[in-house]
Each structure stands twice: as C-alpha cells, then as structure tokens.
C-alpha cells in the first residue's frame, strides 16, 4: 500500500464527496423525467425498494473494495484478485467514467448556458423548444460551455483529494441543498400545486408495468455512480477508522433525499401551470423554462434552478475525472496536475463530436444513433450494468461475501451488514442488472 496516498481528513469530507458524486444530472434531470414518464408516485416507491435492495449493497461493496485495496479501480481488482483477468472490470469502470464525462460535460454546459438565459429573462409566450434546439444545434457556443465546465472540473481535481475535491464539495453541497429548498418552497406555494403533489406522492399501482420496474432498477443503479469506479476510487481514500456501512448509508440517504426533494420542486410547479410531467428529457430544458416564464419572479427562480443543476453536475463530474486521474497517478505514476490537465483536454476533445452531432454533424449516425446517444448507449446502457453485475459477482463469489461483510463491519458502526448481504450480492443484484441489460438490448435490436 502507498503510505503517502491522500486520505479524506474527515467523515464529512468523504460523505459529501461521495454524495456529490452520486448527486448529479441523474438526480434532477433524469429522475424528474423518468418519474414523469413512469406514472409518478408508484415509480418512486419501486425506486426506493430498488435503492434498498440494489443501490445500498452495491455502494458498500464498491467502497469496501476501494478501502481494502487503497487503489484505483484497476489496481483494486489487481490487489484483491492478483494474476487474474478481474482487473478488466476495473478497466471497464475507468472507460465508462471517461466516456460518460465526455458527453456529460456537454449537457452540463447546456445547464450553465441556461443560467445566463435566466438572467436575460424567461418571457411568457416564448417557444422554449425552439430556444433549446437553437442552442444545442449551434456550432461554437455549446462547445465553449463544454470547455468552461471541463476547466472547472479539472481545476478541482488538479488541486488534489483534500485541497480540491474535499474543499469544494464542502462548499458546493450545502449550496445545492439551500437552492433546492428555496425552489421547493416556491413550487409548493403556487396555486394548483396540490395536483402535482398528488401525482408525485399518491401512488396508482394500476399504472405499473414491467417497464416501471426496469426503469426503477436502472435509475437506482445509475443515480449512485455505481459501476463506473467512482465509489471504489473515493473508498480508496477512506481511512481504516471509518465504518463502511455507516458511510455508505449516509451517501445513499443523501443522494436519495436530493432526488426526492427535486421532485417536490419540479412536479408541483409543472402541474400548477398546466404542463405535461411526461415531457421526457425536455422536461428540464423546455418545460421548466416555460413554467418559470409564467411564474411570479420566474426568471429569478429559473436562475436558481440552473445554478443548482450546474452545481449538481460539477460534483458528479469531478468524481468521473478522478477515476481516470487516480488510475494514471497510481498505475502510471503521473503527477496529479499533469494527469488532470492531459485527461481533461482529451475528454474535452472527445466530447466535441457529441456537441456537433446535435447540429452540423447531425447527419452522422453510428448504428442508427446520433453521436451523443451512441456514447450514452455504450457507456451507460452497456458498460455500466456489465461492470456493476461483474463487481457484484466478484464480491459475492471471488472475494467472498463473508470477506466483504467483515470489511464493512470493521470497525463496528451503527449499521451492521448481515448474511442478507450475501443473498443480494450473489444472486439478486446480478440477476436484476442483467435483466435490465438484456431488456435494453432486446429493445434496441428488436
């Protein structure tokens, strides 16, 4: 083990960093539209069950792997299963983080651009679909925002674990929470907000389909930054004095709370002003600006919302970049600043086609998909679930569930991992994730 390796200097530092990794566009943008298109409250309940049965066990698994090995994802599997091909699972996580950040940064750039659109004012009667399409199909402006976001991300990572990640998440996460509470208060005080609350909180199980369960499992898995090596990496900076089960519980709890509270900010406002909650991915960039335009002081609250979205994106992006940087620092012995700058630039360049694919390169498709959709499909729909399922199999059958249980309970904490963990990690989680993966492939190729 490398004795000079940086460590989180406090329990709060790890919890906020890991929660920040999990809290991102997936909690606010993806959770809102997936909930809206899957019937509201019934989906939320199934999602919470999936968090408990899949999300939390996988969270403690990845953190335990990281803390035990004190390595990046590739080094972790090499250390725990030497002279075997299991390191390829870690490599898949590094690949996933690399590809996801390349297009994630482009989308995060949209949210940053919308901060300034809110400052200019959201005007009633505006065709916000045209505004959104006009922005993302541009040639230069979206790439500039992509660059700005990547510079912020690599600047934080270059500063290090303590002076960079830990320092900034202690600022960004409280800001995110405050902004979210302000938005919830405003949404709940709108006339007609009750209908949105009923949609979000009163389940109608007659609307549940098999697709609802698959969507809930997928959202529970992806929202926690699982399968991409982020939690293994962050766990590797956790000291032996910290209990994995307790820390994992805090991270999962905060991530889930942010997603649920975001729903309280979005759905009452959408219903109060008569918009469609099932607007899909356009809910945040098309529907919500239209909502803000009709709301008293709407431009102010639109500004707050897109600052919130950008902060959430940044806390996730730094974990994605850290996965790749940690691999270069550990395995290739690169200086942190060199690794951060070079990888940041490479990811920025690789992300450019996903932006141009919305506009000038829109005629270019890969297996029938636009460039951004292809990147997302390869990383999020294929690499992440495969990596997650293989990590569960590794923990349950190779490293052994009993070993993981002992690691997570040392030292003892408020939460005790019991034999139920073995059943989940050996059978339930791999089967559930592979079902989501196979269904995705059938939908695509069928």
Class by helix and strand content?
Answer: mainly alpha
Choose one word for the global shape: globular
CATH third-tier fold name: Hydantoin permease
Low-confidence stretches: none
Q: Largest sheet, described in full?
A: none
Beta-strand portion reads under 5%
How many strands in all? 0
**What string gives the helices and strands in order?**
HHHHHHHHHHHHHHHHHH
Can you name the CATH architecture? Orthogonal Bundle
Distance between the termini: 48 Å
Rg of Cα set: 21 Å
Looking at CATH, the homologous superfamily is Hydantoin permease
Q: What is the count of helical runs?
A: 18
CATH C-level = Mainly Alpha
Task: Please describe what this structure looks like.
With 446 residues, the protein is an all-alpha fold. The protein has one domain (11-379): Hydantoin permease. It contains 18 helices and no strands. The chain has helices at 11-22, 25-37, 41-69, 73-80, 87-120, 128-136, 141-158, 161-188, 193-201, 210-223, 230-235, 244-272, 282-294, 298-331, 336-356, 371-398, 401-408, 420-445. Helix 3 crosses helix 4 (73-80), helix 5 (87-120) packs across helix 7 (141-158) and helix 8 (161-188) runs parallel beside helix 12 (244-272). The longest helix is centred in the N-terminal third of the chain and has 34 residues, at 87-120. It is globular.
